[in-house]
């Protein structure tokens, strides 16, 4: 069936481009007071569990929320440079999957600290750090995906030189389990804000204002999703 609508749509993409990078930056800044190594990150959970877990959760939320922004940017690149759009978009999204997998390990380690103690959690992470799994083979996408996507954005003129370099800086953010915040983390997440926030606000301005019916349906849908999210925590 033919349609003019393209998924994920203007509004979802705008939210992703604005909120996603800000959550990543907020999560990175929350980890600044704690040393970078995984042993220090675990020790920090004992001292300030709410702050540490909250920061990692914000980073995770921003990471998951980035996929509509990446899809929309790749679609813009693909109008003139489909190969760069395909490879860059696919690599970045695989990299988002990879970071989400790492976040699951992080959350498990945090719970081990709180339920089994710091020594037990540290030993578990240290013993299993080099274990091979499916995502071991995709780690390169976390870095190189952003470089490919940024080059495609520059070649297609979807982003200018400054925006493309800012987007590419996300590839310098350290990858792996229980990584703290360093200068590259701050530079990369700030760069993502520089690259995506103007695009997100442009999408907001370009489209028509939502109708009252659309606003009411969105509020109702949000309430239903909130209830379903709460129900998901019960089982």
Query: What is the radius of gyration computed over CA atoms, rounded to a whole number of angstroms?
Result: 19 Å
Shape: globular
Number of domains: 1
Report the portion of residues in β strands: under 5%
N- to C-terminal distance: 38 Å
Helix content: over 70%
Strand/helix succession: HHHHHHHHHH
- Average pLDDT, rounded to a whole number, is 91
Low-confidence stretches: none
Structural class: mainly alpha
Tally of DSSP helical segments:
10
**Biggest β-sheet description:** none
Number of strands: 0
Keywords: Membrane, Transmembrane, Transmembrane helix
Describe what you observe in this structure.
With 235 residues, the protein is mostly helical. The chain has one domain. The protein has helices at residues 10-30, 38-47, 49-65, 67-78, 82-116, 118-128, 139-155, 161-168, 183-206, 212-232. The longest helix is centred in the middle third of the chain and has 35 residues, at 82-116. The mean pLDDT is 91.
Describe the structure concisely for a colleague:
The chain is an all-alpha fold and 235 residues long. It has one domain (10-210).
Key traits:
235 residues, mainly alpha
Detail the topology: elements first, then pairings:
Elements: H1 10-30, H2 38-47, H3 49-65, H4 67-78, H5 82-116, H6 118-128, H7 139-155, H8 161-168, H9 183-206, H10 212-232
Helix pairs in contact: 1-3, 1-4, 1-9, 2-3, 2-5, 2-6, 3-5, 4-5, 4-7, 5-6, 5-7, 7-8, 8-9
